[in-house]
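Hypothesis: this fold can be encoded by more than one sequence.
Test: take the structure tokens below, design a sequence, compare later.
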């Protein structure tokens, strides 16, 4: 009797496992990545299209246009019916109607933007391409890097940033990197570039500690950027200064400020 019950339980568990395995097989490998060039009168424009959760009810798609600085823009609507695909991108005033090849390794169709038709042929990729920025520093770094938080007491907000410290320097001189106009994260990231990451790496390798931070309301920093004035942002820099001035690894008499664009106005 016990043997029979054990067998029934074993079969039951086996069937449950098979359901999970089958479900995993159906849901894995459902992401597709395609690359192609829109053939315009003046130039070819590189585009990447990522189709996520293909063959499921949560189908989504995203487009990247590297030459125009547009990354990971969600496509408003996508429909796949057999070997045909329709894509609508409202912000681009674009409709892309195309056909898959029989093995779905290619997509061929017409990119209609603002009532202008352009040919777009795409090939399938194993994964979404990564932007290669040779100047961007890679770990391991020959210095210490810490995620830090400091308070702007007058605004009652907490700001987040990264402090890089020379490995063998005690009471190091330091600088604060102040970003330009518009909401910026600690790397001052724009168009796939991270200029403040590059600058902080260079300075820290030269023996100078660097504090870079997410502007208020951006990344991990509290507050609201849209209502902040230049004066408000200068108070955030003062909060960063006070943080460094009280840091035991920083020479409090050697703290400078490097500002970009509006940051160059704030610094003085």
């Amino acid at each position: 009797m016990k043997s029979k019950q054990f067998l029934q339980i074993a079969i039951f568990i086996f069937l449950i496992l098979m359901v999970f395995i089958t479900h995993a097989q159906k849901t894995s490998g459902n992401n597709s990545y395609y690359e192609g060039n829109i053939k315009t009168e003046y130039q070819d424009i590189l585009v990447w299209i990522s189709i996520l959760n293909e063959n499921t009810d949560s189908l989504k798609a995203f487009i990247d246009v590297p030459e125009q600085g547009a990354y990971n823009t969600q496509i408003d609507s996508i429909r796949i019916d057999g070997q045909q695909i329709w894509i609508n991108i409202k912000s681009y005033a674009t409709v892309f109607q195309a056909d898959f090849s029989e093995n779905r390794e290619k997509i061929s169709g017409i990119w209609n933007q603002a009532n202008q038709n352009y040919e777009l042929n795409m090939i399938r990729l194993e994964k979404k391409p990564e932007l290669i920025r040779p100047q961007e520093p890679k770990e391991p770094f020959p210095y210490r890097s810490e995620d830090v938080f400091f308070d702007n007491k007058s605004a009652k907000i907490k700001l987040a940033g990264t402090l890089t410290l020379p490995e063998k320097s005690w009471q190091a001189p330091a600088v604060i990197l102040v970003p330009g106009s518009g909401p910026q994260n600690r790397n001052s990231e724009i168009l796939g570039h991270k200029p403040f990451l590059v600058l902080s790496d260079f300075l820290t390798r030269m023996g100078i500690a660097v504090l870079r931070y997410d502007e208020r309301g951006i990344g991990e920093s509290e507050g609201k950027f849209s209502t902040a004035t230049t004066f408000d942002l200068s108070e955030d820099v003062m909060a960063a200064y006070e943080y460094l001035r009280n840091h035991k690894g920083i020479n409090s008499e050697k703290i400078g400020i490097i500002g970009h664009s509006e940051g160059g106005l704030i610094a003085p």
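DSSP finds four helices and 14 strands in the chain. The radius of gyration is 26 Å.
Hypothesis status: open.
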